[in-house]
């Protein structure tokens, strides 16, 4: 079954190697594809190949750096089809224009700024145009493309690396803002696609600079542009999950020492086979708070991990994580101070509401 049947996908930079491949894959999965690019012959050839394979494709010559033209284009597609389901941007300048392979100290200001003023600008223009429509229909996905140089690990990748880092930050902020409306923003971070135009140009540069064959350049490019250590940004929800783990340890350690203080450390170190006197006062209140925390934490942890697994990240999940964490902090402090009504009515309910927000986001 084609998973994109009756869907409408727009590909900017469809005349390039990556844009063309993505457009054909969208079509193979059943989507009607809208091919946008600056070179008419390239996108028309892609459309011809898609039609030959039984797909549907339309072409439009457009500059993804033209804000007015892009917005009119997206609006026109929505007016005609009723919706837009996916947008992918694979536009970019030539490698030689942004000084690929040069050390940062050797880059000119103009070379450094080229990918920022083209790739970042065009991605913002196309994503914003798509987001405006997708928010109204409360569905859709905006797909960004970056490379491994988004995390510095290779010499000569400064200009494009900074650009890719900016694209990924744009994606994260956009996802946070449009997620509550049911719209997704995702990013594909690739390593060296040796058949792509950009890597082919890198290899040409390397063969000239290093006096090696193209085959040797392919091997070097594949090694150099593969991240040795890949870092992954941690979501706000995961940070609060880690904070809750630390809070749980605080509960256990505090409760253990207070119980030992009341019953004696000799009792703590004993086999505890004899019946112990009931706890009272502060140790009892903190022990009850610890028990209550352990009753709720597994549910919170499961919700955070499920949301992470199904890519639910937005206003609801962030608020939910904060409500749970600070609710549990407040519960412990209120319990220790003896404010039982505030503890239960305010802080326990705050934590539960936080978990309910996760459920709403997930379901």
Could you give a short description of this structure?
The chain has helices at 17-28, 40-52, 67-81, 109-137, 158-178, 197-210, 214-224, 236-263, 265-269, 282-309, 315-337, 340-362, and strands at 8-12, 32-37, 56-61, 86-89, 141-147, 184-190.
Which secondary structure elements does this structure contain, and how are they paired or packed?
Layout: E1 8-12, H1 17-28, E2 32-37, H2 40-52, E3 56-61, H3 67-81, E4 86-89, H4 109-137, E5 141-147, H5 158-178, E6 184-190, H6 197-210, H7 214-224, H8 236-263, H9 265-269, H10 282-309, H11 315-337, H12 340-362
Parallel strand pairs: 1-2, 1-4, 2-3, 4-5, 5-6
Helix pairs in contact: 1-2, 3-4, 4-5, 6-7, 8-10, 8-11, 10-11, 10-12, 11-12
Structure, described:
The chain is α/β, with parallel strands linked by helices and 363 residues long. It has two domains: 63-224, Rossmann fold (3-Layer(aba) Sandwich), CATH 3.40.50.720; 236-270 and 277-362, Up-down Bundle (Four Helix Bundle (Hemerythrin (Met), subunit A)), CATH 1.20.120. The chain is 61% helix and 10% strand. It has helices spanning 17-28, 40-52, 67-81, 109-137, 158-178, 197-210, 214-224, 236-263, 265-269, 282-309, 315-337, 340-362; strands at 8-12, 32-37, 56-61, 86-89, 141-147, 184-190. A six-stranded parallel β-sheet has the order 3-2-1-4-5-6, with helices on both faces. β4, α4 and β5 form a beta-alpha-beta unit. α4 runs parallel beside α5. The longest helix has 29 residues, at 109-137.
Report the CATH C-level class of the largest domain.
Alpha Beta
Helix content: 55-70%
How much of the sequence lies in strands comes to 5-15%
CATH superfamily of the largest domain: NAD(P)-binding Rossmann-like Domain
Written as H for each helix and E for each strand, in order along the chain, the element string is EHEHEHEHEHEHHHHHHH
Structural class: alpha/beta
Can you name the CATH architecture of the largest domain? Answer: 3-Layer(aba) Sandwich
Q: What number of domains? A: 2
Query: What's the number of helices?
Result: 12
């Amino acid at each position: 079954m084609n998973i994109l049947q009756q869907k409408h996908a727009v590909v900017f930079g469809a005349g390039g190697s990556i844009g063309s491949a993505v457009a054909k894959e969208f079509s193979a999965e059943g989507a009607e594809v809208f091919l946008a690019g600056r070179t008419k012959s390239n996108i028309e050839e892609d459309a011809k190949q898609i039609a030959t394979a039984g797909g549907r494709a339309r072409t439009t010559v457009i500059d993804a750096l033209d804000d007015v033209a892009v917005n009119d284009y997206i609006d026109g597609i929505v007016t005609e089809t009723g919706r837009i389901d996916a947008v992918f941007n694979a536009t970019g300048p030539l490698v030689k224009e942004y000084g690929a392979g040069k050390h940062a100290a050797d880059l000119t200001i103009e070379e450094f700024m080229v990918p920022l003023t083209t790739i970042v600008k065009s991605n913002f223009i196309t994503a914003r145009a798509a987001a405006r429509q997708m928010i109204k229909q409360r569905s859709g996905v905006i797909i960004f493309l970056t490379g491994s140089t988004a995390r510095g690990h290779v010499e000569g990748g400064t200009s494009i690396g900074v650009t890719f880092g900016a694209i990924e930050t744009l994606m994260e902020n956009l996802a946070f803002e449009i997620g509550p409306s049911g719209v997704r923003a995702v990013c594909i971070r690739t390593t060296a696609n040796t058949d792509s135009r950009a890597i082919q140009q890198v290899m040409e540069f390397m063969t000239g600079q290093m006096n090696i064959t193209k085959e040797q350049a392919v091997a070097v490019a594949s090694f150099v542009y593969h991240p040795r250590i890949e870092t992954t940004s941690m979501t706000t929800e995961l940070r609060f999950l880690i904070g809750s783990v630390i809070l749980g340890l605080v509960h256990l350690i505090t409760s253990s020492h207070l119980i030992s203080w009341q019953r004696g450390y000799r009792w703590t170190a004993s086999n505890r086979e004899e019946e112990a006197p009931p706890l009272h006062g502060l140790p009892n209140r903190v022990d009850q708070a610890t028990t209550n925390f352990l009753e709720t934490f597994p549910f919170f942890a499961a919700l955070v991990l499920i949301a992470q697994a199904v890519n639910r990240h937005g206003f609801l999940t962030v608020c939910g994580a904060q409500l749970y964490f600070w609710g549990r902090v407040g519960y412990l402090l209120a319990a220790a101070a003896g404010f039982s009504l505030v503890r239960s009515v305010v802080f326990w309910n705050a934590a539960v509401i936080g978990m309910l927000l996760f459920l709403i986001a997930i379901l």
